[in-house]
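Bench notes, afternoon.
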Amino acid sequence: MNKPADIKHHTVPLWIGGKPVVPAGRMGDVYNPASGQVAKKVPLADAKIVDAAVKAAAAAYPAWRDTPPLRRARVMQKFLQLLQDNQQELARLVSEEHGKTLPDASGSVQRGIEVVEFACGIPHLLKGEFSENVGTAVDTHTLRQPVGVCAGITPFNFPVMVPLWMFPVAIACGNAFVLKPSEKVPSASVRMAELFKEAGLPDGVFNVVHGDKEAVDAILAHPGIAAVSFVGSTPIAKYIYETCARNGKRVQALGGAKNHAVVLPDADLEFAADALTGAAYGSAGERCMAISAVVAVGAAADPLVKLLETRAKAIKIGPGDAPGMDMGPLVTAEHRDKVAGFIEKGISEGAKLVVDGRNPPRKEGFFLGTTLFDRVTPQMEVYKNEIFGPVLIVLRADSLEQAIALVNSNPYANGTAIFTESGGAARRFENEIQVGMVGINVPIPVPVAYFSFGGWKNSLFGDLHVHGVEGVKFYTRTKVVTKRWPHQDTPAPGFHMPTLG
């Protein structure tokens, strides 16, 4: 039998200039979270490798920029078909490296595919505006033009969906792209690159580099990159935003979350408990749109906590590819231990531990059970931090007004939801809540692809959200053209400020 050190692992390549590349240098481990064992190796790019990817993108950019949008859309349509044909393979790669269940992984791939569907309409989305006779015989129109080489830095929790929020829209707009996915989940990005090439995308338009902070910093500093998109934690999002701004780059940096769900006494509590259980514990809580804090209002609190307890204890936990599982492992041992540390902190701070997830049913792998806390206060660390694990906390409020004030005082403002049968209460909530994405009896209000995704406050650094129309705006620059075709007898402009009347 081979010793662990003797096992030769598959290496996930980079993708540069339309082909796989395995450079010499540092390597990282890719784990199977269900077993806790190293499953693959991945190269960790340095500044030289990032520069090679940017040069490949820059070389491909002019011809792709000049390709008519309709032809670019035809490549997108072929890419869309290939993604649909290979959806289950991509879901399997996600499940293997992240740990989430196959149905959950497949659903996330589908939400990414929908952005490609949106990007297929790029000829219409790139249309500018026109005004005739803004002055005598003077017309003005606008153009939407690509910005150049763009980069995306994406998190471990959605290896297909989040990259697909970025690069299809950017590339459809005529840009070239360098993707730096999480080194914890590298395989799906390379597979998508292969499919994009098969769809007819010219070599160099899309590139994939794996790596850690060294690769990220090389992207942020590279003068050949015009725009950077990021999804991750708030401290890193702020760092990305500030560094890109100093380097003159366009940037959208989506940060962390502490998503609240407000439950009013008039809500269907059975429905709410079912919805909140999936929203809190699905994907082991490793979602930026997970509901991690419930604000139970008045008489809703005691029965709701009881219902949540019953459902949390019934969740089936196991490998993501095993039939019938509701929740898989966390992505790494370090992250599992960090989440477990928050459970200990909640107990020491005096929160009521209703369900204890510190003893999961499986000992191998990076598993935790479901945890439920009641009577949490805003002063506790389990409330103030984004735990990013299968931990749901319940706070109590006396009124809708108090609940809205609690949510609005939180520094995160990614997503929120309210459960009620009162149209008036729902309308007040959606108008007064200071959060970017709002659900009314919808626990995870992730917008469809033709709307844009993004939060407020410390959940977003930058002006524009991802995908949808705002994504098109981010990956293009507006040029305004004012034109006149003078007759020979038209006097030339003088030295005064020109007017158009």
